[in-house]
């Protein structure tokens, strides 16, 4: 499975990347499992609050990601 992962704001600063492509051998990977994998690589993320979107839709932790999905790690934001 290939996932396109994008990082925004402070999360891009932590990862030193705006995006990356992950190649994983797993199927039935949930957002929560992916979050754990990413946090094991970028441990500083664990100290931050953020949301995760899958294909431009805010996703719950139990959502299953699929091949070619675009996963966005989004810092807190405020609107006005």
Question: Quick recap of the structure?
Answer:
A five-stranded mixed beta sheet has the order 2-1-5-3-4.
How would you describe this structure to a colleague?
By secondary structure, the chain is of the alpha+beta class. The chain has one domain: Ubiquitin-like (UB roll) (Roll), CATH 3.10.20. It is 21% helix and 28% strand. The protein contains 2 helices and 5 strands, in the order βαβαβββ. The chain has helices spanning 10-15, 31-41, and strands at residues 2-7, 19-23, 51-54, 57-58, 70-74. It has a 5-stranded mixed β-sheet. Strand 3 (51-54) and strand 4 form a beta hairpin. The protein is globular, with a radius of gyration of 12 Å.
**CATH third-level topology:** Ubiquitin-like (UB roll)
Poorly predicted parts: none
Computed CA radius of gyration, to the nearest angstrom: 12 Å
In spatial order, strands of the major sheet run 2-1-5-3-4
CATH class: Alpha Beta
- The succession of helices and strands, N to C, reads EHEHEEE
Query: N-to-C terminal Cα separation, in Å?
Result: 38 Å
User: Residue-averaged pLDDT, rounded?
Assistant: 94
Strand content: 25-35%
Instruction: Find the count of extended strands (DSSP E, 2+ residues).
Output: 5
> For this structure, what is the CATH homologous superfamily?
Beta-grasp domain
CATH architecture: Roll
Helix content: 10-25%
Main sheet? 5 strands, mixed
